[in-house]
Structure formats: C-alpha cells, structure tokens
Amino acid sequence: MAAHKIAHATLKGPSVVKEICIGLTLGLFAGGLWKMYHWNEQRRTRAFYDMLEKGEISVVVAEE
C-alpha cells in the first residue's frame, strides 16, 4: 500500500510577544480610565469643600 500524504493544518501556539503587547495595551487603557475617574472624583470633592468653606453650601439642614 502506498502511503497517502494528507495536508494537515498546522496549529501554532499563541504568540508570546503579541499576547504581551495586547495585555499591555489593554492594561494601560483600563488604567487610564481608572485614573481619569479618580481625578474627576478628586476635583468634585475639592469643589465641594471649597464651596463649604466659602459658605455657599451647608451640610446642616436649615430649620424653618
């Protein structure tokens, strides 16, 4: 019997460099969004305490 040659698809493993680049990109993107969120919260907190110090707002309920 003659040996039959069958073309098989070669499966390649994951590319380490490509995985590192994708992970680094996603990590930096998520970190940037997280940092922007915290900068926004810090700005809002600072604005609240500035208004409180100036007397524009109060945390005490006004009695009528």
Automatic annotation (TrEMBL):
The keyword Lipid biosynthesis does not apply. It is found in: Mitochondrion inner membrane. GO terms for cellular component: mitochondrial inner membrane. Signal peptide: none annotated. Keywords: Membrane, Mitochondrion, Mitochondrion inner membrane, Transmembrane, Transmembrane helix. InterPro entries: COX5C. The chain crosses the membrane at residues 20-37. Its main location: mitochondrion. Belongs to the cytochrome c oxidase subunit 5C family. This protein is one of the nuclear-coded polypeptide chains of cytochrome c oxidase, the terminal oxidase in mitochondrial electron transport. This is Cytochrome c oxidase subunit 5C.
